Amino acid sequence: MDATEYLKLLKERNIKVPSTGAGYEEIVDNPLSVVENAKKLGAKYVMVAWIPHKADFDIFEAQQAVEDFDKVGKVLAENGITFCYHIHGYEFIPYQDGTLFDFIARRTNPKYVSFELDMLWAFHGGANPEGLLDKYPTRFKMLHVKDLRKGVQGNHSGSTPVTNDVTLGTGQIDVAGIIRKAKKLGIKHYFIEDESPIQNIQVPQSIAYLKSLKE
After folding, report:
1. Can you name the residues that pair with 47 across neighbouring β-strands?
2. How many domains does the chain have?
3. Could you identify which of 33, 66, 72, 127 might form a hypothetical disulfide with 122, taking C-beta atoms 3.0 to 4.6 angstroms apart as the criterion?
């Protein structure tokens, strides 16, 4: 489906696309094509959700990502698009006085590199999602809102079975607390992400849960 046909379907349903995604290699090799695609969709943000790595993510891969993100982010910023890296849990391997995510956040240029907080992956990787928002209050522009099945133990793999995605408010994550924190920081875009095999059941339940939240 091309962008024109897709946008027609979205318009009929009153759905807008504030953000779109791109692969790491795609955005490094041809950032202007990513810009073109984002503009066709009307998106103001482009996110990358995975840094290629072998075995455990390491400092050398983090250093390469910093270099690539700054270059890509500058090109996107010059074209009116904000680049965001979507954290995926493996970046929370300890490094020096923090984690490899801290290394990326501290070394990238805030003018060109922002972040999307996926609350499930942050939690699964051993981080405190609310603590990350407190630590980097101006760097996170968007949230992936999702919950992790109770009893599941996290790790730094950036992977868990899709059946561990559960209806918001029924898992381990303080979804309401994270959203309240994010709203106080002025974050405007929140995306329900449900990769479970019963998303047609869970997403309406998650929407109802979000609507039930009090300020």
Report:
1. 21, 84
2. 1
3. 127
